[in-house]
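step=encode ok
step=design start
structure_in=
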C-alpha cells in the first residue's frame, strides 16, 4: 500500500492512561500515514481500554458504532468527592467511610440499575451555547445541565476493600461512569469519586487483542495495517 493512501476500516486500540482520545488519533495518523481517522466514544485521560478508531470510509459508520452498549471495569474510592468526579480532579470534600456491609453497598449500586436519569458532570465535553462545559468549569462557572436518560444493563461488585470498591458495569451510550461513582457515593452518604476505569467492550468489539499504543508508536506500519478490520468484516461482527 502506498504511503498516504486511503485506508478504509476499523482499528481497535487499547488506550494507555494519561493520554486523550485525540492523542491516540494523532499517533494513528502518523503510524499509518493517513489523514482520515476518527474515534468512537471519548475516553478520559485517566481511563484505559477499548477505543474504536474509524479509518477512511469507516468514518461513515462512526455514529452507528458509537451508539452501542459499553462495558467497563473500574474502582471507586469512597469518602472523597472531586470537582471532576474522578481522581484527576481537585478534592472538594472528605468524609469518614463507615464500615459498610455488603448489603448496604449492593443496595446503593442497585439504585442505579435499569433506566434512570444522570446529570453529566461540569468537567465534560458537552457544550453549552457552543462552549464545552469543561472550559466553563475552568473559569469557575457552574451551569444547569440537562439530565440524560441512561440505562445500566448489568453491574457486578467485584471486590470490596474499603474505602475502595472494584466494579463492572454494562451501560448505554452517553453514560458517565464518573457520575455513576459519584452518585453511588452520594447514595451511601460519604461521597465517592472514580479512581480508575477501563473500557473492556463496545458492542461486539472487545479490548482483547486490540493494538496497544506502544505497538502503534513502534510497530511496523504493515503489521498495524494487518490489524485493521475491513468494513465487510465489521458488518459481519456486528451481525448487520
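sequence_out=
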Amino acid at each position: 500500500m502506498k504511503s498516504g493512501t486511503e485506508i478504509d476500516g476499523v482499528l481497535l486500540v487499547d488506550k494507555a492512561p494519561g493520554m486523550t482520545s485525540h492523542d491516540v488519533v494523532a499517533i494513528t495518523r502518523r503510524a499509518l500515514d493517513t489523514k482520515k481517522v476518527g474515534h468512537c466514544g471519548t475516553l478520559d485521560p485517566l481511563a484505559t481500554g477499548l477505543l474504536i478508531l474509524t479509518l477512511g470510509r469507516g468514518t461513515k459508520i462512526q455514529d452507528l458504532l458509537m451508539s452501542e452498549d459499553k462495558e467497563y471495569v473500574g474502582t471507586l474510592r469512597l469518602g472523597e468527592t472531586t470537582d471532576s468526579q474522578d481522581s484527576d480532579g481537585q478534592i472538594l470534600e472528605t468524609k469518614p467511610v463507615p464500615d459498610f456491609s455488603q448489603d448496604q453497598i449492593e443496595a446503593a449500586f442497585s439504585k442505579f440499575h435499569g433506566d434512570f436519569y444522570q446529570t453529566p458532570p461540569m468537567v465534560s465535553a458537552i457544550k453549552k451555547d457552543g462552549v464545552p462545559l469543561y472550559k466553563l468549569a475552568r473559569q469557575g462557572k457552574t451551569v444547569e445541565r440537562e439530565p440524560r436518560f441512561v440505562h445500566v444493563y448489568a453491574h457486578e461488585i467485584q471486590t470490596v476493600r474499603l474505602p475502595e470498591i472494584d466494579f463492572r458495569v454494562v451501560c448505554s451510550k452517553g453514560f458517565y461512569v464518573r457520575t455513576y461513582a459519584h452518585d453511588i457515593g452520594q447514595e451511601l452518604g460519604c461521597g465517592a469519586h472514580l479512581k480508575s476505569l477501563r473500557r473492556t467492550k463496545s458492542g461486539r468489539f472487545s479490548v482483547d487483542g486490540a493494538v496497544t499504543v506502544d505497538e502503534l508508536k513502534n510497530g511496523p506500519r504493515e503489521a498495524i495495517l494487518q490489524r485493521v478490520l475491513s468494513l465487510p468484516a465489521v458488518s459481519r461482527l456486528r451481525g448487520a
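step=design ok
step=annotate ok -> The chain has eight helices and 14 strands.
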